[in-house]
Amino acid sequence: MDDAFFMQLALAQAREAAAVGEVPVGAVVVRHGEVIATGRNAPVDGNDPTAHAEIVALRAAAQALGNYRLDECELFVTLEPCAMCSGAMLHARLQRVVFGAADPKTGAAGSVINLFAQTQLNHQTTLLGGVLAQESTDLLQDFFRQRRADKREEARQAHPLRDDALRTPDAAFEGLPDYPWQPRYISDLPALAGLRMHYLDELKADDKVPGVSHQSLTYLCLHGNPAWSYLYRKMIPVFLQAGHRVVAPDLIGFGKSDKPKKDSFHTFSAHRQVLLELVDALDLRNIVLVVQDWGGLLGLTLPMAAPQRYTGLLVMNTMLVTGDEPLSPGFKAWREMCAKNPEFDVARLFARGNPQMSPEECAAYNAPFPDKGHRAALRAFPQMVPESEDADGAAISRQAREFWQSRWTGQTFMAVGAQDPVLGLPVMRALQGILRGCDAPLVLEHAGHFVQEHGEPIARHAVGFFKR
Fold it and tell me: Which of 258, 293, 374, 454 is catalytic?
């Protein structure tokens, strides 16, 4: 029997620990090729800070042999031992210690210190690390990912509403067509300061899809004004069917997220910071960034902050506003309309540009805004577009422009709704010239600004494109 066999037994102990809420670390003690003792983490269950898997296994082995000296024994443990456990192993005079995953924070077998390499000690134990390291690491990461998700869910159940914010009643979102996904909420990001943010998170990276063997991507879908995550309902199923994870947040002030009462809450920098913190909190990786409208103004500034997280860009009817170039006449007309008609009918706006939509679908875009008190974001966002070089968001957008021109190494796919009078083909052609490696766009001749309402063919093209 080889080391991997005994490490699998230790992993079984680690899974038992996870099943009862303990950090998943398991250990076995072997003597002459025979398992004589096992142990799993149990500090929580026993209120015992010394009840690490290795200590539990050492105690059981000593009882089995009737001797605290374990001279001819080997110990297999799924995680690099800490200083306490390493000391116990040396005192027990183990012949050999084998571990799986390294522990960069508390590991005392080479990561932080290496007690086994101290020649001054009166006993030397042979050491081997990295056996089934990935399996051990995956088990730990899955455990802590689920713990974070559980904490977020607990927080969701008790998200208090800030005095300076409103929350659209859940009843407003009942029965929405083609929007079956579970709502998720987060409020503990520093930039949120207690505001509740809604997001979809479908098909976690460790979920399995029959027949899908390629590496899973995470499609991060960012909406614009006055939309919300409902905008991506035609694209999400395509991404999921292909075996990928989809994360689609509602910006603060939109959708199911909380809505600050004052227009002044809304700034470019504040919304960008929330998105940066959300990506970190959810530990998103292999991201295909999917953007449109304000999803692009904000989203296109994100990858340069953590380029290792991003592998692709799907960009639709948006722009990168740097303050050193004039805004398009189409946008200025849109901004003027919003200023003159602050209570404009969002459903009617969608119906006018998308005659194929049902009345129920159009009404879904009105759902987040039951009265004018909920509409601060709709009033603020047109004025937030940086028009001068010193405007909020302009400098960071210029940095993003340089990033996309010279440092972006991922794949880029562009789709354009040709009937968009604000961010149509002329604006997107200019953006194409900025995006390094961006080929000719997919042009949808009958689609307008909200091109995601024709999103199924775009999503199918994108899945094939990013699969290459």
Answer: 293
